[in-house]
Amino acid sequence: MQVTRQKNRYRGLAIVETAIIFPILLLITLGAVHFGWLFLKAQQVTHAAREGARAAIRADAVNDDVGAIIEAVMAKAGMPKAQSGYTWTPDPTDVYGVLPGDPVRVKVEVPGQKVALFHVNLPLLGPWLDLTPLYLRGAVTMSKEGS
């Protein structure tokens, strides 16, 4: 009789432990998925900047060609301009006028809220739980090719 009572006493302990630990494990798992997704998107933004810079360093490159390449790469990555609101800027502003050997820098910037998987909107805990960066940025500098 004593043994049966002791087993019954510990039977509910596993449920209580699970109820305490499960939300913590769920939060860690969702955080890992969220940050993994953001790292993927950051790599895709950097890839778009790299491809834009490769287009910008050609001797006959113009800004429209660079923009078209960046838009194609971003659309392939699932971030079309209308949806993600990204911007790109060449430095200097006109890539056609750059002399051979001079640097050309292409920057691509996406608002972090536009590409995040989910947002935490709790009134009291929202600012501390939402760790999404404001912007995902990619910037690449290459030297202009000779003509």
Strand content: 15-25%
Number of strands: 3
- Note the run of SSEs as H and E: HHHHEEHHE
| Number of structural domains | 1
Count of DSSP helices? 6
Structural class: alpha+beta
Mean pLDDT: 87
Tell me about this structure:
The chain is an alpha+beta fold. It has one domain. The protein is 54% helix and 16% strand. The chain contains 6 helices and 3 strands. The longest helix has 44 residues. It is rod-shaped. The N and C termini lie far apart (95 Å). The model has no long low-confidence stretch (mean pLDDT 87).
How is the topology of this model organized?
Elements: H1 2-11, H2 13-56, H3 63-76, H4 81-84, E1 87-91, E2 103-111, H5 112-115, H6 126-129, E3 135-143
Antiparallel strand pairs: 1-2, 2-3
Helix pairs in contact: 2-3
What's this model, at a glance?
The protein has helices at residues 2-11, 13-56, 63-76, 81-84, 112-115, 126-129, and strands at 87-91, 103-111, 135-143.
